[in-house]
């Protein structure tokens, strides 16, 4: 009897101690024969699942759970929407109580679909912590905002203008028609795009934390995900143990305002790596001059070119327009590895070899389109940025020009706008331990953005990856620094000297080797 009593008391103590953490349960399947495992965190019951990786035969074992929230948090008793929630379990039998919460970029990327790309950078954290993945509303499996595709394969969103043979007026007219068709399709599903903003998504994260038993999160945000992290830190400071902001978007930034200026600055730095190298300079000359002249030539006459598509090797015929050229160059500038190819690629195109350029442009454009939920992106940008977005003389004179800004204003004049808090664009003021990561040659969120955010943080540090572009959390020794920081979130004591070993990739002299 005494033994039985001691066992009962021990069980009660274990329940009391671990009540706020995860508890394993074994339940019977409907036929009562095979036990099915579940994993409970707070009120959320996770079950084993498999996360398929888009456009791949690969998959990730995980734990999934249904999660529902109000479509509009101003009406919590109204229509509910389903969000896709997954958990990557720690290898520890008793993980640390503060899980990592990954916030994807875009706006419009799915946290679950992009996890395989980020996993190598965060793999070391799984030794002690669970990782929470929640597709932001409007993306992935979280009531995605998807509209019928146009004849170009794009949704009705303000993507860079790469259509062949169409004038600016024709492009804007078609964008208006596609946007109205998109809204009609969403209305048939009973969805209001105005409810798919960052503000509503942050409320979703607050509800998720409550459902999980009120743990503190270690936030990891990438690109637009850093803006979500900043807003969460602003609204729920008690809910965050630490934050890592990779390629940061400042709260006060109007997204799209300096895209052209930032790209020009990054390209000048990238091309300087070639002009400073004797072999590259001799082979390709001044790549910026080559790019500007090529754009002018294509503006006078956009050649129609036949080429084979990547993947299925289908023969297609398309025009190489100036906008399409700039779109491709911008994609290349995101990574040090692809930026190193630009002098070679541009030189080949300047000599009339357009097919490789178009094949790469089509492949990269389709990859971006497939990984982004562009209609959710409109809900964010039209509500939070476009009302304050305007073309400056510097932006108009840039390589990118003011076409994206004009297109956004055209579409957002039709797209519903959600409510934005009055302090949405106020800079973050916080004492939460924070690590800011930037790439020296980032063409979209340059290091000065990290410096701007750093001013409002009393316990933070900015790390700049030499010679690198956008999204640097997985480069070089950065994963080890991230792991050490989350284990002990003290930015001032983090030894980041290993970053000095990083540098840009030397420009390619041909497709087999780089410059010495």
Q: What is the topological layout?
A:
Elements: H1 2-18, E1 22-28, E2 35-41, E3 44-52, E4 59-70, E5 80-88, E6 100-103, H2 111-122, E7 131-134, H3 168-188, H4 198-211, E8 217-222, H5 224-235, E9 240-246, H6 259-275, H7 278-284, H8 287-300, E10 304-308, E11 315-319, H9 322-333, H10 336-339, H11 342-350, H12 355-371, H13 374-384, H14 393-397, H15 403-412, E12 434-439, H16 447-454, E13 460-465, H17 478-487
Parallel strand pairs: 6-7, 6-8, 8-9, 9-12, 12-13
Antiparallel strand pairs: 1-2, 2-3, 3-4, 4-5, 5-7, 10-11
Helix pairs in contact: 4-5, 8-9, 8-11, 9-12, 13-15
Can you walk through the features of this model?
The structure is a single chain. This protein has 516 residues and is of the alpha/beta class. The protein has a domain of 161 residues: Rossmann fold, CATH 3.40.50. The protein has 17 helices and 13 strands. The strands form 2 sheets. An 11-stranded mixed sheet has the order 1-2-3-4-5-7-6-8-9-12-13, with helices on both faces. α4 packs across α5, α8 crosses α11 and α9 crosses α12. The longest helix has 21 residues. The protein is globular and about 65 Å long. It starts with a helix and ends in a 29-residue tail after the last helix. The N terminus is likely disordered.
The CATH topology label of the domain at 39-145 and 193-246 is Rossmann fold
Alpha-carbon distance between the two ends: 80 Å
How many beta-strand segments? 13
Radius of gyration (CA) equals: 25 Å
Q: Report the helical percentage.
A: 25-40%
The parts where pLDDT drops under 50 for at least 5 residues are 1-35, 150-165
Shape: globular
Strand content: 15-25%
What do we call the CATH homologous superfamily of the domain at 39-145 and 193-246? Alpha/Beta hydrolase fold, catalytic domain
CATH class wording of the domain at 39-145 and 193-246: Alpha Beta
Structural class label: alpha/beta
N-to-C order of helices and strands: HEEEEEEHEHHEHEHHHEEHHHHHHHEHEH
